[in-house]
């Protein structure tokens, strides 16, 4: 988590300084695409602040109203970040682009814009390298996209996507600024803004999808479920694991519920001892399983022989 904060702080400082210089350069050079890039950097700055807020609030101790803690605060604020990228970043950039295509303005002195673009690419590039290095450490040998989908900590990949979008946007603005200056085609300024906006909309859609999945209660992988079932069913008191349910409360905390059929003839003390042993076994193997609820149950053999009956009874 400390490494996540390092990449977020790096992106925060870089985006704040870049946003200020872009606004100045955009005003002097009369460049709508540069103003769009400035808005993009300002939104990114706000996003880093919200991510840090989410990380901070997710560490609050459980209380009477939130007995499982505040871990999902991080997922909530990550989702808000994706909405901001879509609305403020992508939406305003596309609007600016349409305005400048309909009413193109002659380009002012582009010298400062070139300097700002060069420095912005340098600083954003450094921030991107830090984010890539951190994500590589997190994902190990897991393929990139699979690591994004499986990650339970949005701060690991959110800064990476933000910085990648920023670098792509800067390259597009730089190319269009050069062509505009070379061939006197002010309409390209609006085109650049729209392209930057579309990149931000695409990135926000990806981030919103992943954050929403975590916020709605994403659980452990099928492989982990299978392994837990095998572990539990090795216990001499257990006949079968009937159901296993789970949800990530935060990147570091999982709520696990097991419904288990125990052997006939066990008294209450024996079942309680078995439950304590199973809980300790699972926690020893999976450190993130902070909350483990185990409920004894009986196996409905009729339902096993007639699986369609259960669906009919539930009105499915």
UniProtKB/TrEMBL annotation:
It is a multi-pass membrane protein. It is found in: Membrane. It comes from the Bacteria. It holds the Pfam family Cation_efflux. Residues 11-216 form the Cation efflux protein transmembrane domain. Gene3D superfamilies: Cation efflux protein transmembrane domain (1.20.1510.10). The chain crosses the membrane at residues 7-28, 74-95, 115-135, 156-180, 186-208. Keywords: Membrane, Transmembrane, Transmembrane helix, Transport. This is Cation transporter.
């Amino acid at each position: 988590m400390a490494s996540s904060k390092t990449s977020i702080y790096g992106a925060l400082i870089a985006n704040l300084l870049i946003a200020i210089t872009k606004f100045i350069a955009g005003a002097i050079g009369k460049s709508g695409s540069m103003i769009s890039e400035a808005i993009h950097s300002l939104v990114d700055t706000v996003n880093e602040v919200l991510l840090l807020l989410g990380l901070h609030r997710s560490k609050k101790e459980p209380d009477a109203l939130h007995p499982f803690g505040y871990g999902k605060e991080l997922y909530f604020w990550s989702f808000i970040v994706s909405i901001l990228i879509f609305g403020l970043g992508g939406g305003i950039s596309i609007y600016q682009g349409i305005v400048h295509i309909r009413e193109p303005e002659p380009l002012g002195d582009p010298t400062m814009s070139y300097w700002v673009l060069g420095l912005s690419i340098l600083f954003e590039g450094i921030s991107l390298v830090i984010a890539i290095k951190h994500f590589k450490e997190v994902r190990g040998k897991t393929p990139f996209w699979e690591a994004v989908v499986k990650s339970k900590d949005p701060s690991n990949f959110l800064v990476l996507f933000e910085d990648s979008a920023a670098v792509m946007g800067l390259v597009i603005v730089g190319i269009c600024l050069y062509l505009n200056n070379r061939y006197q085609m002010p309409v390209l300024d609006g085109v650049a803004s729209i392209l930057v906006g579309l990149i931000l909309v695409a990135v926000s859609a990806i981030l919103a999808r992943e954050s929403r999945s975590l916020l709605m209660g994403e659980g452990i992988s099928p492989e982990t479920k299978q392994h837990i079932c095998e572990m539990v069913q090795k216990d001499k008191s257990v006949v079968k694991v009937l159901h296993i349910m789970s949800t990530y409360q935060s990147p570091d905390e999982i709520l696990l519920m097991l419904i288990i059929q125990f052997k006939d003839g066990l008294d209450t003390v024996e079942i309680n001892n078995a439950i304590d042993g199973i809980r300790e076994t699972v926690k020893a193997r999976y450190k993130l399983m902070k909350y483990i609820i185990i409920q004894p149950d009986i196996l409905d053999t009729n339902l096993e022989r007639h699986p369609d009956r259960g669906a009919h009874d539930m009105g499915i």
